[in-house]
Here is the input.
Amino acid sequence: MKRIIVSACLLGLKVRYDGVSKENKDLLALMDKFEFIPVCPEVFGGLPTPRVPSEIKDGKVYNKDNVDVTENYLRGAEETLRLCKIYNCDTVILKSKSPSCGKGLVYDGSFTGNLIKGNGITTDLLIKNGIKVYTEDEFLKEYVDSN
Ligand code: SF4
Here is the structure.
């Protein structure tokens, strides 16, 4: 069974900044087809749950109180990459729009809900290391199209 690392919030774990999950029932329905391994880069990076929300600005990450939390995000990305290597996992599914897990689109750093092109910190590191990153919607579409 193929192993895939998945954002923990998508699997129903309450690790998001606001202390809830973003459970994706369509992904959970595939648990008998894939071995999903949950990760939360922000928790891996030493941040608490709940936590002050953060966004990327000029390549760094700041929370809404304007505290620079870039180091936490970098550490979470490194630990997620480490997990990919431990599990010999070449594919991940990461939650869209997150400053850690987003792919293609992230919030612009103004905390106004505006999205701009870009990747989350973990997504960026994994892509640079040759790991295939899907958003949840991309993965589900590809799965449906190929089955
Ligand atoms: S860092 Fe990723 S896994 Fe953790 S709550 Fe945010 S989107 Fe979900």
